[in-house]
Amino acid sequence: MDSHFGLMNVWNQGDFVTKAVAVLLIGMSLASWIVIIVKALDVIRYKRLAKHSQDFWHSEDFATALNKLGQDDSNPFRALALEGREAAAHHRNTKAHLHDALDVSDWITRALRNGIDAFTARLQTGLAILASVGSTAPFIGLFGTVWGIYHALMSIGSAGQATIDKVAGPIGEALIMTALGLAVAIPAVLGYNALVRGNKFVLTKLNAFAHDLHAYFVTGARVQSGSGDAIVVPLKKG
């Protein structure tokens, strides 16, 4: 409650610079929370898709496996499977032109890597906002504090008195700007770190899926790591 009244006093008694700093910090807080919520929902959805992506390999053929990934074009696992299929078909249809430049393994690797890079860029959208807010909000709040203290001292100097009742209020209200800056920065930093960890998990699963897709399109079977040796696992026939 005291912080609420303090913020109101900062707004009511502050000049244009103080109000501009407060509005900027509030805007940064809203932007960071929007990014955190939207990207967190995306990470949760991608983790669920990563869990269900293993069903892809428990299918009779590739078409059935693809249907198990759903019809959502934003599903990165489905998009990667389509990229690999198109790359393999393109290489077969243009073998006479491509065999001297790239073999099928290199061609599919390039297609899958491009798909992963595109998804990585999409996955990291918005993280720059959180990084910027987390690194700049404390200093913006500190600037508001310094400006508020300067403004308060100028008022005290013009009044010719420096009693505690005249100093405590304005200085305390100025310090609220520092607290506001930290309140904006801390969620942004924590949200950034949590999203980076979530993105890393999703990308790890996507890279593993791409490895299996590469093996499937090149050899006709999925390659899994077993007890020391590679195990070739074709799509189930029944």
Give a structural overview:
Keywords: Cell inner membrane, Cell membrane, Membrane, Protein transport, Transmembrane, Transmembrane helix, Transport. The chain has 238 residues and is mainly α. It has one domain (18-93, 103-219). The protein has helices spanning 2-13, 16-52, 62-68, 76-93, 95-98, 104-123, 127-159, 164-219, and strands at 222-225, 230-233. Strands 1-2 form a two-stranded antiparallel ribbon. Strand 1 and strand 2 form a beta hairpin. Helix 6 (104-123) runs antiparallel to helix 8 (164-219) and helix 7 (127-159) runs antiparallel to helix 8 (164-219). The model is unreliable at 1-5 and 225-233 (pLDDT under 50).
Characterize this entry briefly.
With 238 residues, the protein is mostly helical.
Tell me the layout of helices and strands.
Elements lengths: L1 H12 L2 H37 L9 H7 L7 H18 L1 H4 L5 H20 L3 H33 L4 H56 L2 E4 L4 E4 L5
Antiparallel strand pairs: 1-2
Helix pairs in contact: 1-8, 2-7, 2-8, 4-6, 4-8, 6-8, 7-8
